[in-house]
Fold each of these.
Amino acid sequence: MKLRSSLHAMRQCTGPIALAAGFFDGVHIGHVRVIRKTIAAAHALDGEAWILTFDTHPRRVVNPAGAPALLTSNEHRFMILERLGLDGCLVLPFSRRFARLSAHAFVKSLAGSCPGLRRVLVGTNWRFGRGRAGNTDLLARLGLRFGYSVDIVPPSMWNGQVVSSTRVRSSVLNGRLHEAAAMLGRPFSVLGRVTRGRGIGRKLGFPTANLETGAEVLPPQGVYAVRVLVGRTWHDGIVNIGVRPTFHRLGAPLAVHLEAHLFNTSRRLYGRMMEVFFLRRIRAEQTFPDHRSLARQIRKDVRLAASLLRNCKPLKKDKESLYRDKMPVYSRPRINK
């Protein structure tokens, strides 16, 4: 997937372009619907499918106090979008100056810089321009002037309500992972780089990969059964999210850590990027009286997680599931403890 960071750079794209516009935080099934229709439109034009998005959430510029915590980092968001089969992504810097641009001026600049623009696809509530004055009606009217048509994609529904990043965020933060998976079309995941830790897990017989994610949204603290993607290789494992109370040093800050123990692997992972998919919460984080007690509990966690992962059932493979042709995804498993 090609990445461009300015409208001027789009002048190189002279062939027909179908363009989806939005921020796409989390890339949930509503976003996937828009993108799949964009890809289909591009095929009909014998052209390319692109998205228009921003490097930071607009509310972080115009209303920082009301800005949401993000489900995906930029790197993670672009990785997921690339998996969908897009040809390119236009990532515009969102600044106070950009926020003052009128809706008409924005569309004029976009159309003038993208000579191949033929179709624009957006959700029903998409807004643009200064004060969010631009709506889908204005976008369509301007399309008559600038030579593109507009497709308004209706929202996706789940459990009787519109799927949104806000709903997904609430489900993750409250530990309702099966709900988040249904709305995302895949299990909730975080992306991060493996860094060196204190080596405590290795001493206990369960070496862990310490993940530096910068994630703004995480499930509640505790131990989880997970599937982990490193490069193109899948691993089953467990993850602990928490402050490591058993080993907390008196006076040290209570920072939240994410540590993954992968089953049946001895690979050196330092410096590697890792995507962790959360399948099921096993237990809350606990304080143990000594190392042996913790090691006994980890052995129990590993056995339970392995059983859970063996018994996970595939999500319904509908047209809005992101990974339906790429890899297995899982719904809420049922096992006897």
Amino acid sequence: MARIFVFIYVIILLLPWEARGNDCTFTPALNGNATACEGSSGNVYTTDPGGTGYTWVISAGGFISGGWGTNTVTVTWTTAGARWISIDFTSAAGCTAAAPTVLDVTVNLLLPASLTIAVSANPVCQGTTANFTATPANGGPSPSYQWQVNGSNQGTNSPNFSYIPANNDQVKCIMTSTYGCATGNPATSNTVLMAVSNNLPVSVSIVASPSGQICQSTQVTYTATPVNGGSTPAYQWKVNGVNAGTNSATFSYAPANAEVISCVLTSNTPCASGNPATSNSITANVIASIPVSVSITASNNPVCSGIPITFTATPVNGGSNPTYQWVVNGSGAGTNSPTFIFSPSNGDLISCYLLSSLGSCVTNNPATSNVITMTVNPVLPVSISISASSNPVCAGTTVIFTAT
């Protein structure tokens, strides 16, 4: 169609000036704008209100209604795309248009405006900031945003919104598109119902077994009891503030005196507060080991057969009420006493066991004494006999007596 008008225009230019008459000048416009929306209607008019015999031609997709012979017509654009309107007319003043005037029109699609919002996390823990992001569709070059919490306006004109929610808060956003052919504008987003979980305080306590005073080199089992530790809590045991042990609820260790044992618990439960948590401290009360010993002595050795001998036991760390067990040649003998009276035979082996009455932290208990090997000599009858060198003898003769 444009080529037809160009062709007509060329013919008009080739005509003699007289044949063309006086030229008229006018400016067509579409409501002052060269853009329109699909399905919209607008008035197209010229600036020459005195013109008559207007000829209006429109590109495919538009429909002209009314005002065919006037300087204004109404156009409804049925399809989007590049459109044009050609106008030719004869003025009441007797002039004619030098050439048809073509007005280019861009018809834009009708696009639905919409908005979706998403939150960084839901549910969230109490006191935690939730970050919302709005994703527009057909918002135009610079859409505006109005966030709402429970129906009240919040935030700023931004596609992002951050705040600390309460449980059951309802968050949405209203977008106003700057796209000229947007439908459903302003657009309201989906509503996010916030779930806020209460914070759970994390703690841990430890106990020792055995507790209280312990003996040197005693293995102690420390046990941690968590509160709100989650499904897989992590444990870090410490001795004097230095990491020790393994990731376990128990810790076995032989402490030295005054060493301090504690535990740090890291919970994996959602919404944990006070995490990680440090336990109470247990200071080890370690008593040095006390060695038990006993030694025995005999009142005489060697001795004669049948002579009673007193054996005496001397204890070390026996306590206030030690127990004694005397032993002769591997068999128990005597009574529970630090002394033992016995008539030994030659070669008898005498020893003693001592059980200390000290309740704790003793070593080598019961203790075994030294062994005494007895030397017992038999009893021999004593006699004497004498003999004379001569008997009888003469008076005055010396006699030698011999004792055996």
Amino acid sequence: MRWYVLHALSGHEEKVAQTLRHLVTLGKLGDDVDEILVPYETKLETHKGKKRTVQRKMYPGYVLVKMNLTNENRHTLRQVQGVIGFIGSADAPQPLTEVEISQIFARMDQEEPEVDLAYAVGDTVKVVTGPFTEAIGKVREIEIERRKVKIMVSVFGRDTQVELDFEQVEPFEPEEIQSGVL
């Protein structure tokens, strides 16, 4: 049995997986399908100064199926509502390699949630908590392991580097200035 990737309509991955599981229980796919998976990973998001852990699809629009591929199975799977097709050519879907599968499972089993930042080095951010609240600065450095960000802010007219937690800053979008005709 090999892992194949089904391309599904984005947002319908779970519905497709549920339909495939139902077909397996009805015996319409025989013993050729072993496992059906929509891979998720845990991410740590910061929004408006609040941390939260969320489950995100690793590959939106795709469902993994461990199976023995036959012409009958391929035809049956392509007929499922929400399925666009297999990854690979239409005549010969390409199975995933063992390395690719082990990387996917390693990412799914990751204990520490991956940090999903809304800003990068060079972006302008606003400090939302702490002694520099309301200060605007540019991101100089991001230290993922320590969960720290270093930004340059103006203190008494001088640029000063400040180290803050990820949760203390958020992206800053200046209000668009209405430009009139001169």
